[in-house]
Amino acid sequence: MNDTLGLLEEARQVAIDLGYEVREELLGDLPGGLCLVGGVRTLLVNLEQAPAQRLSVLVAALAEDPRVATEPKSRLLAARLAAVRSDPR
User: Fold this and answer.
1) How far apart are CA 70 and CA 55, in angstroms?
2) What is the per-residue pLDDT across 39-53, written as a single tens digit (0 to 9) for each?
3) pTM flag (> 0.85)
4) How many domains does the chain have?
5) Residue 57: its H or E element
6) Which domain holds residue 12?
7) 51 burial class (0-12, 13-18, 19+ CB within 10 angstroms)?
8) Strand locations in the chain, DSSP E?
């Protein structure tokens, strides 16, 4: 659990460093994800979800951004991003 919470905070900070607005809100059944709000890249994170699910939403969005490769990050977060990029789904 501590790894998850630490990775969640790290992923959130990487997103902010890349220029995303990260909004943590109560979204009901919606998982959240990347969207544009007034032309601003925004990551919506559902506070009603478990930390592992919130981390998955952030990692999935970051994995699609090629700029994340140049951002400093832990080996653990880099491995999560690589796993999402290599997933054939």
Assistant:
1) 20
2) 899 999 999 999 999
3) yes
4) 1
5) helix 51-63
6) 2-86
7) middle
8) 21-25, 32-37, 40-46
Which H/E stretch holds residue 87? none
C-beta neighbour count of 8 within 10 angstroms: 21
Measured between its terminal Cα atoms, the distance across the chain in Å is 26
CA angle (78 as vertex; 72, 79 as ends), nearest 5 = 165
Contacts of 22 (CB under 8 A, 6+ apart): 12, 15, 16, 42, 43, 45, 58
Given a contact cutoff of 8 angstroms between Cβ atoms, the answer to whether 7 and 28 are in contact is no
CATH number at residue 23: 3.30.2010
